Amino acid sequence: MRRRFIRKVSPSIIKELDVFPKVPDVCVQTSISGGTVSLLAFTLIAILAIGELSYFQNSWIKYNYQVDTTISSKLQVNLDITVAMKCDYIGADMIDQTEARVGESGNLQYEPTYFELSAKEKAWQRMMQNIQQQLNKEHNLLEFLIKSSFNGTTTTKSPRVVDSTDPPNACRIHGSMKLNKVAGNFHILAGKSYDHPFGHAHVPVTKDPKVYNFSHRIDHLSFGPPSPGLIHPLDGSEKITETNMYMFQYFLVVVATEINTYKFSTNTHQYSVTEKEKKLTGMRKKHEIPGILLKYDISSLKILISEEGMPTSQFLIRLCGIVGGIFSTAGLLHDACGFIINLLCCHCKPREQLQRQG
User: Fold this and answer.
1) pTM value?
2) Which residue of 8, 113, 290, 350 has the smallest Cβ count within 10 Å?
3) What is the DSSP string of 90-137?
4) pLDDT digits over 110-153, tens only?
């Protein structure tokens, strides 16, 4: 009968068990140069890791383009324009290339008002004009507004509070309309419009040119569903003229835009604008008439604006690359510098010995 002896595993055996072989402490020689290199390596790793973390937390705006496939849908137009003339003397129409006319059918509202602004309204207008100037100079400001979901901007005026006994001297034309998604024009001319077999015409209420004053202020002009906070190129603009016979022209290119950020998403339309104005004389051409003419064209492209950031997996890979790369490079540089120093010392020692023997 055999006896089986069970050998107890001592804790010292477990301590000696190690997958990664280590160099004994007696074989490790510390040096000032090695400690300095290690300190510099850890410092550089910390600096680069902090920079990489801040880059990981940041995001950027990316722009893509594709063909707009919603060309058959309706296009909504939102406007708020104040003209320095009484509502009885002017008429507004919006006509597209399909000869669809909207304007006198009750979609636009004519509101008698005052052209002069109050102190609060002037402050709002100056703010909008300053934002427009900064947007034209700095593209980063637009990206900041998009990422902040336009929460820091106020694009709507407070209701007007006018304390005056004088009769209104201006007309506010505002409202929203839906037209076919094709090119068209919007115009404000003297007189009310009426239809005839060849189109439509405006019949002036009075022949006195002194009542004509097409000085105007565009508080808001946008295309597509209302998007609170979005700033459009003509918002807050103002044109003043002392001449009765004056023509203002705006040429717009409307582009469908889809915005997707971490905070909000919206489908809207942007537009670029080119302005032209001209003083008319008695010998004017047929197509030159006093008034405000706004012509727009629809782009076949669609802009996709999205907010993107670094994926977590890419951040971890870059972080591992920083740590491993700095350790490897520091070790190679330390060995190379040590080799060069030893090589120079070996050449210097024989010369010193010869000098001592001599």
Assistant:
1) 0.70
2) 8
3) EEEEEEETT--EESTTTTSEEEEE-SS--HHHHHHHHHHHHHHHHHHH
4) 889 988 888 888 888 888 888 888 777 766 666 766 766 666 55
